[in-house]
């Protein structure tokens, strides 16, 4: 028997041993049918008859900073959508005035919302960053939104 094949067979049976040893004391669902395969004596699901193998899975990364980073953008995006109603309502159906400050605020909201969608779709890249960097990015995004809100309020107070 070629050496590689021999090694694989030894590895497989060792992995099966470890799998059965693990299942002796732990509950686990069959990945195919969901049947609890605790205390098996052979690496085969008794319910659906699929072979079971020992595999390595990745732990679920913590997503707290990702949620913190997308939250202001999603909020701004939704707010921007609703702000279109008074802007367009007044300009087209009202007295025909385009409110410049409202349009600037609304544009910011759209950009922020699009950025949050982009961040959500590229979340793997965000989660691959170190936790300290994730926190820094999330806090920067919050800071930009808080600063923008402050500027908008200031402009509203100064010009109206
Ligand atoms: Zn099964």
Q: Could you give a short description of this structure?
A:
This protein has about 160 residues and is mainly alpha-helical.
SSE topology:
Elements: H1 3-25, H2 64-93, H3 100-121, H4 123-128, H5 131-159
Helix pairs in contact: 2-3, 2-5
The protein binds zinc ion (ZN).
Describe the protein in words.
The chain has helices at 3-25, 64-93, 100-121, 123-128, 131-159. The longest helix is centred in the middle third of the chain and has 30 residues, at 64-93. The chain is elongated, with a radius of gyration of 28 Å. 69% of the residues lie in helices and 0% in strands. It has 160 residues and is an all-alpha fold. It contains five helices and no strands. The protein has two domains: 1-57, no CATH class; 64-159, no CATH class. Helix 2 (64-93) runs antiparallel to helix 3 (100-121). Residues 30, 32-33, 35, 45, 47-48, 50 line the site of zinc ion. Zinc ion (ZN) binds at residues 30, 32-33, 35, 45, 47-48, 50.
